Amino acid sequence: MADGILRIPTEKKWYFCPDCGQKLLIYHNAATCSGVYVKCKKCGKTVEIRI
Hints:
Largest sheet: 2 strands, antiparallel
Order of helices and strands: EEEE
Helix content: under 10%
Number of domains: 1
Low-confidence stretches: none
Distance between the termini: 13 Å
Radius of gyration: 12 Å
Protein backbone atom coordinates (compact mmCIF):
# COMPACT_ATOMS: atom_id res chain seq x y z
CA MET A 1 0.00 0.00 0.00
CA ALA A 2 2.94 2.29 -0.65
CA ASP A 3 1.20 4.06 -3.56
CA GLY A 4 -2.16 4.38 -1.82
CA ILE A 5 -3.55 1.51 -3.89
CA LEU A 6 -4.85 -1.54 -2.05
CA ARG A 7 -3.63 -4.71 -3.74
CA ILE A 8 -5.23 -8.03 -2.89
CA PRO A 9 -2.84 -11.00 -2.66
CA THR A 10 -3.87 -13.46 -5.36
CA GLU A 11 -0.86 -15.76 -5.66
CA LYS A 12 2.19 -16.93 -3.71
CA LYS A 13 5.71 -16.89 -5.15
CA TRP A 14 9.10 -18.20 -4.03
CA TYR A 15 12.06 -15.88 -3.48
CA PHE A 16 15.23 -17.66 -4.67
CA CYS A 17 18.87 -17.15 -3.69
CA PRO A 18 20.49 -15.21 -6.57
CA ASP A 19 23.77 -17.15 -6.17
CA CYS A 20 22.74 -20.83 -5.93
CA GLY A 21 18.99 -20.84 -6.74
CA GLN A 22 17.84 -22.28 -3.38
CA LYS A 23 14.26 -21.43 -2.33
CA LEU A 24 14.47 -18.97 0.58
CA LEU A 25 10.94 -17.81 1.40
CA ILE A 26 7.36 -17.55 0.12
CA TYR A 27 5.71 -14.16 -0.44
CA HIS A 28 2.42 -12.86 -1.82
CA ASN A 29 2.40 -10.86 -5.03
CA ALA A 30 1.05 -7.85 -3.06
CA ALA A 31 4.00 -7.86 -0.61
CA THR A 32 6.58 -5.09 -0.37
CA CYS A 33 9.88 -5.53 1.43
CA SER A 34 13.35 -3.99 1.54
CA GLY A 35 16.21 -4.04 4.00
CA VAL A 36 15.53 -7.59 5.22
CA TYR A 37 18.47 -9.99 5.16
CA VAL A 38 18.28 -13.80 5.08
CA LYS A 39 21.17 -16.28 5.18
CA CYS A 40 20.96 -19.02 2.56
CA LYS A 41 21.22 -22.50 4.07
CA LYS A 42 22.77 -23.99 0.93
CA CYS A 43 25.59 -21.55 0.03
CA GLY A 44 25.85 -19.59 3.31
CA LYS A 45 25.70 -16.13 1.73
CA THR A 46 23.58 -13.31 3.14
CA VAL A 47 20.88 -12.13 0.72
CA GLU A 48 18.92 -8.86 0.91
CA ILE A 49 15.22 -9.42 0.21
CA ARG A 50 13.88 -6.72 -2.12
CA ILE A 51 10.29 -7.20 -3.28
